[in-house]
Specification:
The chain has 97 residues and is an alpha+beta fold. The protein has one domain: 2-Layer Sandwich (Alpha-Beta Plaits), CATH 3.30.70. The chain has three helices and four strands; from the N terminus they run E-H-E-E-H-E-H. Strands 2-3-1-4 form a four-stranded antiparallel beta sheet, covered by helices on one side. Strand 2 and strand 3 form a beta hairpin. The longest helix is centred in the middle third of the chain and has 16 residues. The protein is globular and about 45 Å long. The mean pLDDT is 95. This is Thiamine-binding protein domain-containing protein. One of its GO terms (cellular component) is cytosol. Belongs to the UPF0045 family.
Length: 97
């Protein structure tokens, strides 16, 4: 499964980068395949391990922010691995044609 999620601290002002970095650090330290862009962090793995990482990422932000917003999108596809890479490669292949 791939989960794309965004954790946003609320009530801390406009500059939220240091709070978001706390969440991304949790994801990167998890050892699961992951990718971060300007809007979301995507992480790939089994349901329980991915949801545990999301929960811990939210908790990391929650420790310093009075309120946290979570947006989450999941691609639940049993038996598929390396989706973070293969999905992008498929699109790039079609673009190159």
């Amino acid at each position: 499964m791939i989960v794309a999620f965004s954790v946003t601290p609320l009530g801390v002002g406009e500059d939220v980068g240091e709070y978001v970095a706390d969440a991304v650090r949790v994801v990167r330290e998890s050892g699961l395949p992951n990718r971060t862009d300007a809007m979301f962090t995507s992480v790939e793995g089994e349901w329980d391990e991915v949801m545990d990482v999301v929960r811990r990422a939210v908790a990391a932000v929650e420790r310093r922010a009075p309120r946290v917003s979570l947006v989450l999108k999941a691609d639940i596809r049993p038996g598929v691995t390396d989706g973070l890479t293969s999905k992008v490669e498929t699109v790039e292949r079609h673009l190159a044609e």
